[in-house]
Amino acid sequence: MPPGAVDTHFHIFGPPDLFPFAAERAYTPQTAPLEHYLNLAAVLGIDRGVVTQPMGHGFDNAVTLDAVSRSAGRFRAVVKADDRFTEADYRAFHAGGARGVRVTVATAAAFDAARPMFDGIVARIADLGWSLTLHAMPEALLRGADWISGLPLPVVIDHFGRIDVAAGKRQEAFTVYRQLLGEPHVWAKICCPDRLSRSGYPYEDVLPFVAAAFESASPDRVIWGTDWPHTQRWELGEMCDDGDLVDLVPRMVPDTALQRRMLVDNPARLFDFGPR
Fold first, then answer.
1. Residue 254 pLDDT more than 60?
2. What pLDDT is attached to residue 232?
3. If we measure between CA atoms, which residue out of 163, 221, 226, 217 comes closest to residue 191?
4. What angle do CA 159, 163, 165 make, to 5 degrees?
5. Whole-angstrom distance, CA of residue 15 vs CA of residue 30
6. pLDDT grade, residue 185 (50/70/90)?
7. Is 82 a residue of the active site?
């Protein structure tokens, strides 16, 4: 990895005696504390990172902000938020190293129900210079496409819109995803080929979708992440090797100058790391 490389998507879980998991959660994660990620980053050559608040900890962002506070300036945070948070809360998050909010939506109906809340979040963070990360399933991405196009701040679309790679590049959700990447404020996060692949490593079935994303997005609006510790992928044979994900980078992006933009320059600008 080049000096200054940024992993823009990883999670910290627990330890639960210090940072309890949310009472209402979609899954119970394995413990994955900060020390484990720091060991991984040292092996892989990752210098900086963006700690992304996981669903397993709900709306209590303490575990994520704690990781940032102990990173000696190496990390930024993307927090989880809803309409309970005030402008004062966001200012405190900003002081603690947060530079974005991530929202998750699974269906068109869920998007319709959550849109007023999403609009409130956007209104509160736009002046902070933050981005909005959208983790949307295909149905929700289709419903929210016009809304995304009109947003006044950078929008990062997670995980290729969670498309079904078996459905091919001409499926409606991926077509809309590519159209959105043509918008001057929409970013592509190259992340979780292991989660999308039907064939497994070396994820040959995902590579055409990566190439299509690069064709659609400006090279100045592409970032990369590991998705460590790969939640809900704990069955034998499901868990990927993060070294394989790093080794996949030059296969996805052969051009070394473009690699540097994706891994270093673009995330530094989006998440306010400053020059390297």
1. yes
2. 84
3. 226
4. 110
5. 9
6. very high
7. no
Q: Which of 227, 241, 244, 272 is catalytic?
A: 227
Q: What is the structure's pLDDT at 237?
A: 79
Q: How confident is the model at residue 275 (pLDDT cuts 50, 70, 90)?
A: low
Residues 14, 32 contacting (CB under 8 angstroms): yes
pLDDT class of 276 with cuts at 50, 70, 90: low
Q: Region 112-122: what's the mean pLDDT?
A: 98
Residue 274: the pLDDT is 73
Structure tokens at 56: 């397993």
- Alpha-carbon dihedral 193, 179, 188, 104, rounded to 10 degrees: -80
- Residue 228 near residue 161, CB atoms below 8 Å: no
Please state the three-class secondary structure of the chain as a single string: CCCCCEEEEECCECCCCCCCCCCCCCCCCCCECHHHHHHHHHHHCCCEEEEECCHHHCCCCHHHHHHHHCCCCCEEEEEECCCCCCHHHHHHHHHCCEEEEEEEECCHHHHHHHHHHHHHHHHHHHHHCCEEEEEECHHHHHHHHHHHHCCCCCEEEHHHHHCCHHHCCCCHHHHHHHHHHCCCCEEEEECCHHHHCCCCCCCCCCHHHHHHHHHHCCHHHEEECCCECCCCCCCCCCCCCHHHHHHHHHHHCCCHHHHHHHHHHHHHHHCCCCCC
User: Bigger pLDDT: 233 or 219?
Assistant: 219
Report the pLDDT averaged over residues 53-79.
Answer: 97
Q: Report how far Cα 233 is from the mean position of its chain's Cα atoms.
A: 17
Write the CA distances from 123 to 10, 78, 81, 88, integer angstroms: 26, 17, 13, 13
